[in-house]
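Changelog-adjacent note: as of this version, every example in the card shows the full chain rather than a window. The one below runs 258 residues end to end.
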Amino acid sequence: MKQDIYFIDAFTKDTFFGNPAAVMFSEIDDKVLMQKIATENNLSETAFVNLKNKSIRWFSPSCEVNLCGHATLASAFVYFNFLDNTKKSVTWNSASGYLKVKKKDAYLQLDFPKDKFVQVDMIDKVYEAIGSKPNETYLGEINLFAIFDSEKTIKSIQPDFDKVSALDGQGLIITSKSKKYDFVSRYFCPKYGINEDPVTGSAHTSLIPYWSNVFNKNILHAKQISDRGGEVFCENLEDRVLIGGHAVLYMKGSIDIS
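Full-length structure tokens:
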């Protein structure tokens, strides 16, 4: 059985930047097989989109995840460019509910649920894990995130990934204000086999409402400052967040599943 597979760089206009994701439009529903394919791809996420039941699932190299922004963006890019270029939007069901992606000007925009988070006192534990002391820490429905004073600090942090794995939450987001952008961030998720994710759409379900409140505005421009890096165009709504970004095709091929 041959299946088409696409490799897409998400949240960037340029190949070799942003966050790479593998995308398959397939009716495969065998979770074990999906995981084997994702492990073989060895990217932060592989997305499986089933057009028959209008669903999307995401797998890291080690496990299935409940929400992934960059692989959803990559899937929509494939859909609009290779499967149906007449559509202006697409909606898929997922473990996190219905997710809509629409064409907006020159980029694609994800409509995602807004995170609910509370302030927690994990400053010392984060300091022990990454070697820099944050001003505040918050725990959301998915991730722990920590607020720092400067972009320079965010860039310089070199985590102890074993200690990051011991923290609460799926992963750790670190973030600060920026001179060029409204805010910058990095994301570490060693629990799921991803020491540092290049650009993380789902992390912005927490970052957008937080920074929107800080700046008292709903339209924000962000950058995830990993080595690959990627820009995120953000909008804060009442119960949802809009996460915008570009995407580019790196490779299209096929896999032969015996």
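Structural remarks: The chain has two domains: 2-112+244-256, 118-236.
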